[in-house]
Amino acid sequence: MITRSPAMPVALKLALRELRGGLSGFRIFMACLILGVTAIAAVGSLTRAITEGMEREGQSILGGDMEINIFQREAGVELLTWVEDKGTLSVSARLRTMAHFKDGGTSTLVELRAVDGLYPLYGNFETIPQLDNNALFEERGGRWGAAIDPLLADRLGVALGDTLSFGAIQADIRAFIEHEPDKANLGFQLGPSVMIRHKALAETGLVTTGSLINHYYKIKLNPGTDIEAAKESLSAAFPDETWRVRDRSTSAPGLRRFVDQMGMFLTLVGISALVVGGVGVGNAVKGYMDRKTRTIATLKILGADGSVIFKTYFFQVVIMGLVAIAIGTVVGAFLPGVLAMFLPDSLPVKPEGGVYPVALALAALYGLMITIAFTVWPLGKARDLPAVRLFRALVAPETRWPRFIYTATIFGAALVVVLLAVGMSDNRGLAAGFMIGAGITLGILRGISWLIERGAAKAPRSKNALRRMAIANLHRPGAATGAVVLSLGLGLTLFASLALIEGNLEARLSEQVPEEAPAFFFLDIQRAQLPDFEATVAGIDDVQDLVTVPNLRGRVIRLNGVKAEDVEVDPEVRWVLRGDRGLTYMSDLGKGSKVVEGEWWPADYAGGPEVSLGKEVADGLGLKIGDVITVSVLGREITATIRSLREINWGTFGFNFVILFDPNTLKAAPHTYMATLKAGGDAEVVAHRAITSKFPGVTAVRMKEVLSSVNTMMEQIGIAVRATAAVAIIAGILVLAGAIAAGFRQRVYESVILKVIGAVRGQILGAYLLEYALIGLITATIALALGSLAGWLVVEFVMEMEFSFLPWPMVFTVTVSLLITVLFGLGSSFRALSAKPNQVLRTE
What we know:
By secondary structure, the protein is an alpha+beta fold. Strands 1, 2, 3, 4, 5, 6, 7, 8, 9 and 10 form a ten-stranded mixed β-sheet that branches. Strands 12-14-19-16-18-17 form a six-stranded mixed beta barrel. Helix 9 (about 255-290) packs parallel to helix 21 (about 705-740).
């Protein structure tokens, strides 16, 4: 046999021989590790599966090998000539407009895409019925063809063969869109998709100077052409252009960022669940070591030194830990295939089954480090205690710390977990904050559990014997108080904080926003239409608070003379330098902003170009009063001096621009106007119909529809977050079960003694019920306090919203805590009460 090998270390031989006794004492240990490792492995594998799927389908998602996106203007002859030498070109455009169904007298906002005859260069465009490009879109009988999202058919009540109007053209509905291969690359959509022929776009009358339209030039490169070389050639040929260029490896950047950030957040929550499980691991090891007291004492009496004792049981723990970790990684590797069935259809790829070694290795490493961090402490204490004091430790726990090498090992393992979590994250600040918060929470919970035990020990003795016993059980040697508060408390704290954050956000979107926000945003109002538009709105009853502002788009290209891409800025405001930004000019400061540095323009201002920036953005960009910023507007570069900084209240849902120009610089530039108005009840329907029918080229964005889209997205995110938080609660339940199981022997002995002195089953159960109710109630109170604090900090300071306490997370937290502790505690107590006194006393 392997344990008889003379070359095998003595400690390993002893460890393997003891493991022949089975998994007794290691079931909770293994369950905690399996749960935590599975969660991390599954989240990591799923994130990697989605990312690899997007990389694999990058050409289809982008719609080409390269994409050039130009805002508000079409490509010149020079660019088209350059593309002809590189490969095949497909031209398309996208804008938001209104679809009118004149037969039904209805209209709604849509995302209008105009594509050419080569669409798509990659991937499959699927429709019902399935038709080729020409059959779908070419003009027949004076009408163009259109393919529409089925959602649009539901909203307008249209069917195949019906006719829709877009600006000045009419188009027949020839098919419903089943799958757009490049939809994910377009980002967030406010309305359902409609696709028409690119040549028809010019006839709509929707494209004028200042229209919010994106022109896409998708390129299928010639075989053998290197993408990076092509991008460098493009930059060299057009060094001053500000268009956006993507390739197949950077398609759908918003979705990629979302997947990465959600994966990071869920991984952090999974690590928290593993830490909670680590408490169970430590408790299981401590309970196992307590049961091995006789064996350890015997080994020490026979001459075994402390290092042999430590190695023997450390080997056992590591072997069982590796088995649990292996099970967790295997289960986690197969879970993405199951989880993929619950992912939203909006994802452009479905994760494929497969093994992702990096994700699994990280999960295994987390599991191993947590195992070491939580088991070295009880092992180290057992190593240094003399045999006599080992027995005494059962009733008078040893308070001395293990020697330095063991505490250093614990610190090192914990540090590895933190460094991995932070180092592997794209948002290191958030990851570090999460880990610090989890560490502080654990410290607070541990400190509070100690205070509870000390408080119970110092509490006045109750005259009621059973009540006195219940309180004494909170601080007796081997009490479950610390384990329950620490493990179940962390899981419930996490749940309470997430529930409060989600609930406040949902309340903000569903209750407060509709009250404060306008009913409509109107876009693409031409300058010549503005007087008539204002007069039309004034003639509609119960419509109020009409606000109109000029609307332009521009890209920040230099800060204080330095190219924007070369400036080191805060990652939180990098979005300002990414792509085109909304611009406006005004003489009077609107609602929602106030000047906090510098001064606003005087009424008769006639000086050079100046801007007012949002204070938070200016700080992130490293700009101050007197600095200069260069913005490209319609191909013209404008360098303006920063005159003032504003504090912006985005919660007003009005027109709040980060960059505001002075009243004169952009006044002569071609541009359109935007407007908002408030209307309730029937007035909202009347206003929508009156304005969209009279101004078919004006785009009306209904706030209700926007909020519906946002709420749907938040619900999908909430499901994933709640599911992962549930893992932490389950881990806490396992720890609770382990802590109660560890004290089972003492419960048996305790109940037997009480029976001998005359107590009946009901009295003993009453004492246990009171004990576990106290622990559950205390844990719930702590979880509510810490969860509410965390939720308040996130809502008030991160989301910058008004925080409100919500009753149902509190009720749920208290109920779950009480039910779990009482049910598990009484379940164990029933078993303890079933023991026969004579049998128990005979073995003592």
